Request: fold
Amino acid sequence: MLKKISSISDYILICGASSERQVHAIALNIEEGLKARGERPLGTEGIKQGRWALLDYGDIIVHVFVDSLRSYYDI
Reply:
């Protein structure tokens, strides 16, 4: 939980995927699951490209990286 140290968001979820297709699928599934609960993202980036996806829900930010890119940034 980042609430005490960040004014940007309360939570950041970082996950990896073994392929660009998986990055795309994970990001879309998160988006669809939250949409079913009435949540809409403030913004998204990179979902179609597939190497890295960002989903910004205000209090929660989700990053999905292809494993090679996640390793490159060491996160």
About this structure: Residues 11-73 form a domain with the Beta Polymerase; domain 2 fold (CATH 3.30.460.10). Helices lie at 20-36, 67-73.
